[in-house]
Amino acid sequence: VLGNHDRPRIASRAGGDQARVAAMLLLTLRGTPTLYYGDEIGMPQVHIPPHQVRDPWEKNLAGLGLGRDGCRTPMRWDRTLNGGFSDGKPWLPLGPDVASCNAAAQTDNPASMLSLYRALIALRRTTPELTLGDYRSLEASCDLLAYTRGHKGGRVLIVLNFGRVPASFDASRWPGQVLLSTFMDRRGEPVAGTVALRASEGLIVRLSE
User: Fold this and answer.
1) What is the 3-state secondary structure (H, E, C) of the chain?
2) N or C: which terminus of the chain has fewer CB atoms within 10 Å of its end residue's CB?
3) pLDDT at 39
């Protein structure tokens, strides 16, 4: 679980690119992935002015930063009034950048956060290794996390760069072909020897049999 109604938004906690890496982590690990609404479009944590606070916790302990309203703002469906959520005044403000950070704006953008989530979900549904497979951690340096998922002879490699600088992973034992990058631009790229990852990039690689 990356986020819920009690935790600040992952996009604000980690930043946009790292939130994409976190999404790849969530949808390639074992277990049932759970998504908190709005994370699939990178909704940010919203600052709530004191006069608009609704959370009893913040009202009772004002000024301590314990309020949870910032991650409970209305879903942003489009760029119309109130983000397309309601014709009436919503209980909380939607925050800035609604025109670009909404579901409609990201639907036809092949590189958007929403497109990444859709690609990850589709890949998980069609790749038994990601739904039924075992988990094996791999040695990796710097801020990389690497592991494989395997099922009935098939195996995929996942390499995630949690660092803010480029990093390299020794894939000499794990040749294959890129299925998905968090930047949505490396599909089909061959992997052999050392694979370079950009800052805050994640890769899923179909390993050669």
Assistant:
1) CCCCCCCCCHHHHHCHHHHHHHHHHHCCCCCCCCCCCCHHHCCCCCCCCHHHCCCHHHHHCCCCCCCCHHHCCCCCCCCCHHHHCCCCCCCCCCCCCCCCCCHHHHHCCCCCHHHHHHHHHHHHHHCHHHHHCEEEEECCCCCEEEEEEEECCEEEEEEEECCCCCEEEECCCCCEEEEEECCCCCCCCEECCEEEECCCCEEEEEECC
2) C
3) 97
